[in-house]
Amino acid sequence: MSNSNIGVIAMTDTGTIHKRARGLFGNGFDLGRLLLEGRAFFALIAIIITFSMLSPFYFSTGNFLIMASHVAIFGLLAVGMMLVILTGGIDLSVGSTLGLAGVVAGFLMQGVTLEGLGVALYPPVWVVVILTCAVGALVGLVNGVLIAVFKVPAFVATLGLLYVARGVALLMTDGLTYNNLGGKPELGNTGFDWLGFNRVFDVPIGVLVLAAVALGASLLLNRTAFGRWVYSTGGNARAAELSGVPVKRVTVLVYVLSGICAAIAGLVLSSQLTSAGPTAGTTYELTAIAAVVIGGAALTGGRGNIRGTLLGAFVIGFLSDGLVIIGVSSYWQTVFTGAVIVLAVLLNSIQYSHRRPSSAAKPKTSATQGSKA
């Protein structure tokens, strides 16, 4: 057998091996890409393994449920923030909206006195919940109108509402805290602590609320025309508008939904604490943004999903609680959280920078082939 025949056989065998490998792992299998795109999940697994080795109290069902109830607050904020970021916007007011929502709920639970009539009204808890969510929606509506109609940059508009909402909360309370929000049976306003302390099948209500909100948001994004409008607005707002997408209405609605999510988070937090203070939720907007970024969303809009955002929230929550359990200083917790955010942004940049050249190369190749023809 000649050397040329041997070479042909070797090349054939090598090609067969490559084909079988592609059949086994899938076309274009790339371990690095898999790790990059699933970084939030792998980071969460690594955090659980690491802290389980460092503390005997970390890996237990009870502790996981407690940590999940903490994550519910950030997760609710992150879901709303995710919707905004998908459109290419940002909402810095969610932390203050959370605080304002808690204060409004506390104010209503204390009773509303009508001095002219000489009576005090004690609304039932379901009325408190609806009115509190309406306050969150109002803050989101103002944000959305400023951004969509008056063309105020999202950063500036939501930063302004951050201060306005926090200031209103401070004015309502004179800087104090509403305590004892459990209500009284004779007043018919008991049950506010149900969100914070009750459990269904041993799962905290706050976690179930997060699951319900996340499921609803996921269905909204994946199964409705509104979801497609959100992604197209974030991808290219001008092109989406020319295609008939109501970009202004979509922008307003995502900020309204973000405000409602923040209000729900405020209700859950106030219920867990059975108190409402005007400073609650300070810097929580940064944690929500971090959860979205860690989950793989692009801050430029058009890319991301609810699943990744929830994983990002659990990464931050489980990391923070793990550091507390092993006795790390709260100052170092801030450092670690910041480092995780920077790393997440860096990985996002790497992930999406790899995608742009590949998509841009296709027209160039076709143009070259056309010139050759």
Automatic annotation (TrEMBL):
Keywords: Cell inner membrane, Cell membrane, Membrane, Transmembrane, Transmembrane helix, Transport. It is found in: Cell membrane. GO terms for molecular function: transmembrane transporter activity. The chain crosses the membrane at residues 40-59, 65-86, 98-119, 125-147, 154-172, 203-221, 252-270, 282-301, 308-326, 332-350. GO terms for cellular component: plasma membrane. The keyword Cell membrane applies. InterPro entries: ABC_transp_permease (IPR001851). It is a multi-pass membrane protein. It holds the Pfam family BPD_transp_2. The keyword Transmembrane helix applies. PANTHER family: ABC TRANSPORTER PERMEASE PROTEIN YPHD-RELATED, ABC TRANSPORTER PERMEASE PROTEIN YPHD-RELATED-RELATED. This is ABC transporter permease. It comes from Limimaricola litoreus. The lineage of its organism: Bacteria, Pseudomonadati, Pseudomonadota, Alphaproteobacteria, Rhodobacterales.
